[in-house]
Amino acid sequence: MKHWHLTHEASGICWLTFDQLDSKVNTLSAETMDEFSHCLDMLESDTPKLLIIHSGKRAGFMAGANIRQFAGMNEIAEAEAVITNAHQLLFRLEQLSCISVAAIDGHCLGGGLELALACDYRIATDELHTRLGFPEVRLGIFPGFGGSVRSIERIGHLAAMQLMLSGRTLSATAAKRIGLVDDAVPLRQLESAALYVQKQLPTRNRVRLIEKLAGLPLVRNLVAIRMRKAATEHANEAHYPAPYALIEHWRQHACNKAAMYRSEVTRVSRLLCGKTAQSLVRVFLLQETLRAKAAMDVEKHEHLHVIGAGIMGGDIAAWAVLHGMQVSLQDTSKQQLARALKRANKLFEKRLKNPRLVTQAMDRLIPDPAGNGVNKADLVIEAIIEDVDAKQALFASVVPRMKADAILATNTSSIPLESLGESLPDPQRLVGLHFFNPVAKMPLLEIIHTGKTDSSVINKAMAFALQLKKLPLRVTSCSGFLVKRVLMPYLLEAVMMIDEGEDPAAIDQAAKAFGMPMGPVELADTVGLDIALSVARKMSQFQHCEVPGSLAEKVGNGELGRKSGSGYYSWKNGKITNRKNSEFTPELQQRLILNLLNEAVSCRHDGIVGSDDELNAGIIFGAGFAPFTGGPINYIHTHGAREIVDQLKSLEKKHGKRFSPGPGWKQLEGG
After folding, report:
1. 462 with 482: CB under 8 angstroms?
2. Coil, helix or strand for 471?
3. pLDDT(85) > 80
4. pLDDT at site 233
5. φ, ψ for residue 41 (rounded to 5)?
6. b/e for 28-37, b at 16 or more Cβ within 10 A?
């Protein structure tokens, strides 16, 4: 027994500990499930009075199925065998004649939650790191180990469908509120609470009447229509079929357990072997690839000093505090500092819930107008205006006061590090930490380096990204780095088309039809046209980047987009008021996407990142490139480099040299 460990006590209590060998997390793989089957054999032959299933990992209870086993799976029969086997194992767990309890601390996701639901009771810790949910929809499937059946039994039709369709996770307290777990207790009480079940069975939450009514056939049909309509606001069925398959699965078979189990086997197997799920599995593994490159034995940073309390600097500081660091925040403007603290407090209230924890977090965020935190910090990040002279002057005043082993970082979004490091006596300690806005939502962190950046500094910066629960992407310094270098030509092409008389709504619709989460015109308005113009001008100093005339004109007129109420769209209360449904031509979509692909191939050719996987991950998680494609390079391989080059040449003849295929295409065509 390498992964599961059975411990019988004389009192009739049995502890089943899941501690997967050579893994930081517990996952349900072919090997661990086979061993679980042997555990069930022993429990069936020597049944205890009480079975408690818990984890031997500090990382959590169970992360779900081992996603790697799904990569490249294209045989439906193979997928059906995996799901059928899981069904049989969880049926056996459910039918044990003893009381079974899942004692949950940390993440309990996907297949892990499905296993927990097969137990009689679930006790979870009310710690911040405990999260429960079904993220399968993000992998292009839906719960297939009995989760769609048992979750409905436990919490009702509407609550279960919402949980599965959203892919979101719940705290233990929220899970108890809806009946997903039977109790939420402090970590120190988890063991005693699980044992107490033998003396006093927990009182189950009653499923509400409205939840029961939603399962009636006529009502179910109406609810399914509303669910489909809601799904279309977030996912195109042609690109992401899983939510629609789940809704139809529920509409057809809810209230018929046997039919639902059979439907799980057939529907989830077909989804899993489809192009979308395989691409999304690939994207999931790309995240693991980025994290693995930063999995180094580096001490955690304890004190961060951030200079610049604007939106970006203030939000970086708040995010670091949220992840346990002490942060001093420096700015010459007390009003700017006050606004940053106010935003931080809102973030803490939203994420932490508990007033005591919010107060503790605010105590770790220190307003520091004089910059006294510089000499204590392990890491100093500047987040001031995008100006080379201003940043160099700041470095000159800060570096002499820093600890000898502290890292100096810049959050520049467009200026090459070589330019910023010219005035430094020791440019080896300078690294770029390019966060994306909003900091609390964007998962990527570009780690920018030059040939002079010390490798230990890069390693510490990568580890810092993991400390903040970000995906670290190592990027060679250049104008715009990876994400903005690829994204800016795409955004500027959209503006050029507007200048040619195209409807902004049609341009955005073309991008969204491809699979982008937001159209480029709406994105430019949301980011701020002044920021887009500034970045475009900065990048034009270092590489060819044509700035459309209307962009400068609108900024000059004070039309900055969402924040001013007017840009390429009109805005009110954060929403567009003048967008209408518009038809787009195939050429509009080609001009946008091929421009982006061309620049991505140029980045590949220039070695801006270390591999195709890193490039795919960077553009997906930083620029929002359609995840179901698996990333730009994967998209090129799927659709054929030669065909795309021909399309680029056709656009070049019509619209100019910016569509000229870069030298990197030759290697892809040959491949």
Report:
1. no
2. strand
3. yes
4. 87
5. -55, -45
6. bbeebbebbe
